[in-house]
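Request: How about a record?
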Amino acid sequence: MHRTACLIFLALTVSALAQEPTRPRAREIGIAPGVFAPGPLNAIIDVEGVRVGHFTLIEGDRVRTGATAIVPAPGNLFRHKVPAAVVVGNGFGKLIGSTQVEELGQLETPILLTNTLNVWEAAAALVEYTLAIPGNEDVRSVNPVVAETNDGTLNDIRGRHLKLPHFRKALESARGGPLEEGSVGAGTGTLAFGFKGGIGTSSRRLPKELGSYTVGVLAQTNFGGLLTMDGVPLGNHLARYAPRRNDENRDGSCVMVVSTDAPLDARQLKRLARRALAGMARTGASFSHGSGDYVIVFSTARETRILHSGPEGLRQVPRFPDDRISPLFQAAAEATEEAIYNSLVRATTIKGRDGNVGRALPIEEVKRILKRYGRGSR
């Protein structure tokens, strides 16, 4: 991009956002779901090898959208696939590539998150990205995985403003350092519980006696219900909840990407993914008619089976025993719940299409309500 254009883009970005100080994460206001400790960054990238990148597109007074890329592992993912699974909470959505993941239990491209009407451009970008990797010169089939939520309240979604270079920027910017959250990337134009939604992330690390495994979650939130934090019905107190007559809160979607370094196979990963939905439910989600609620899960431990010699001869057995998986289930639910909270508390107010405004969750008011219930002091 030309330097002048970059400066113009930056100016538009600044003017579109409310001039707010840096907003806290959930733990900074005393909301720390569950019993397991987070990883060092409390993010999906606490799982070694996972990288995340954002591209945010804000133009004029109508374009408020973007893309978020999750790269599961370094190297040529197509040649060195990772075990994966998909779980559908409510299927009102466009999740490209899900049937092959379901059939083969593998992921062969990064994951892109974006808006509903740009999923096909995102898929094309993933195909181009994969074909261009050295060693893939003879590849003639690629299964891109793209998920979405509808940001059409704040964004001119019919304009389909995201192009292939924008998705390439998200992929190329993927890194393992601290992540931006809130009104960024694929969460730029989203709404949740009647407030500004966005991108949130969290992680949990099991103690040594449980294997020291890490579970990380990244959520793109754009759904409704009765916002609940630490058991407190905040949506009720803030007068934002379904089925109140509130266009910002009726339907929507939530995409949850779960990663782990535990050596789980595709069957076990599907079980893990279902627990992310438990974490989403704890936030007060209603899983409404028009909500596309999906979990995409993968393990960075590519070898998930071993050969075992016994009286019956040589056979393959799961490397990870099912009777040890429950702590991972707990970790997935906890990290998902906190990732969704982070998407809300980190999100800034965004004014978009036709003067519509996604208002940030009022942090000070939230803290006062939590205090009345004896919460938010951890």
Notes: Residues 326-345 form the longest helix (20 residues). The first strand starts at residue 51 and ends at 59. Residues 36 and 53 are 27 Å apart (CA to CA).
